[in-house]
């Protein structure tokens, strides 16, 4: 992150815009945000040890038949690059990225990797971390992000300087919709739930104390409040289109296909949008 911002100081034509960021712990980031970045960036995050070799193989095959090349970096690799390394591409940087990826996977938990990733990733020029992005774009905390806002933030991650959250292009909107329609695996869903156990325990203690005091004056409203809280949690899970009810090869294959569509069809979608824009320019309305 520091290297990327400092890079603008020595790059001709680039204006240093400063850094806007604020660190937040994992349980203060919306579950929708975790789900969105997994859908968009690393479908197999909880299955691999830093390198998704299936995605690498598919990327190599894709690059043989496409003019524009695409990578297959995992969230762990992106974290290594953003925390420890510089933005320019080179074999030396790639070798160091592999080294730091191995160290991160060995010493950090998956929760810690996602926490660091979402606190250092760039969401716009000089805007780092999901909390800063939430405040600037939506005027709210990262823990209050909706599924639509989370999907929009994740949609610009291929190039957050070129693609704008504040003024999403047709390509970004199409990518946002794909993220909303795709699903995460049962394993990923369950792992994300564990990020909030400590916070849920704290809230449970507070609620029990509140319930005990409140029931003395409003005994009839306690059950309705509990029912409302349960309905809210249930609606949150259902509204994000999480596929946890039909585990198995068929549903897992569909999840994989959704991810591949997001990962490897970025350029074709963008080219199609550009072709449409050019056609509109050449045929102005009378």
Report on this model:
- 63% of the residues lie in helices and 2% in strands.
- With 286 residues, the protein is mainly alpha-helical.
- It has a single domain, classed as Biosynthetic peptidoglycan transglycosylase-like (Penicillin binding protein transpeptidase fold).
- A two-stranded antiparallel ribbon has the order 1-2.
- The longest helix has 18 residues.
- The radius of gyration is 21 Å and the shape is globular.
- The C terminus is likely disordered.
Supply the CATH superfamily name: Biosynthetic peptidoglycan transglycosylase-like
> How would a crystallographer describe the biggest sheet?
2 strands, antiparallel
Order of helices and strands: HHHHHHEEHHHHHHHH
Strand content: under 5%
Spatial order of strands in the largest sheet: 1-2
Rg, nearest Å:
21 Å
CATH topology: Penicillin binding protein transpeptidase fold
Q: What CATH first level would be assigned?
A: Mainly Alpha
Summarize the amount of helix as a percent range. 55-70%
- How many domains? The number is 1
Low-confidence stretches: 5-17, 241-248, 267-286
Distance between the termini: 48 Å
Instruction: Please state the oligomeric state of the protein chains shown.
Output: single chain
Q: Kindly state the number of beta strands.
A: 2
Which class do the helix and strand fractions yield? mainly alpha
How many alpha or pi helices?
14
Mean pLDDT metric:
76
Instruction: Specify the CATH architecture.
Output: Orthogonal Bundle
Descriptors:
mainly alpha, Penicillin binding protein transpeptidase fold, two-stranded antiparallel sheet, 14 helices, 63% helix, 2% strand
């Amino acid at each position: 992150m520091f290297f990327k911002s400092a890079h603008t100081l020595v790059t001709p034509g680039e204006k240093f815009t400063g850094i806007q960021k604020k660190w937040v712990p994992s349980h203060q980031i919306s579950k929708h945000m975790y789900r969105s970045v997994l859908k968009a960036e690393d479908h197999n995050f909880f299955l691999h040890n830093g390198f998704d070799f299936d995605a690498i193989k598919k990327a190599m095959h894709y690059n043989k038949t496409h003019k524009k090349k695409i990578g297959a970096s995992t969230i762990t690799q992106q974290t290594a690059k953003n925390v420890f390394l510089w933005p320019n591409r080179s074999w030396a940087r790639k070798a160091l990225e592999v080294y730091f990826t191995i160290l991160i996977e060995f010493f950090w938990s998956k929760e810690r990797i996602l926490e660091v990733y979402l606190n250092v990733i760039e969401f716009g020029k000089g805007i780092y971390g999901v909390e800063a992005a939430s405040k600037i774009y939506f005027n709210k905390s990262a823990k209050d992000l909706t599924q639509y806002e989370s999907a929009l933030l994740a949609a610009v991650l291929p190039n957050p300087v070129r693609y704008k959250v504040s003024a999403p292009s047709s390509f970004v909107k199409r990518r946002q919709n794909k993220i909303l329609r795709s699903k995460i695996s049962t394993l990923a869903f369950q792992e994300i739930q564990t990020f909030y156990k400590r916070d849920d325990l704290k809230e449970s203690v507070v609620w029990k104390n509140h319930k005990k005091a409140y029931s003395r004056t409003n005994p009839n409203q306690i059950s309705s409040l509990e029912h409302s809280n349960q309905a809210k949690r249930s609606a949150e899970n259902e509204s994000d289109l999480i596929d946890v009810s039909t585990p198995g090869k068929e549903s897992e294959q569909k999840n994989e296909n959704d991810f591949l569509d997001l990962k490897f069809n970025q350029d074709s979608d963008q080219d199609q949008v550009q072709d449409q824009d050019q056609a509109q320019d050449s045929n102005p309305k009378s």
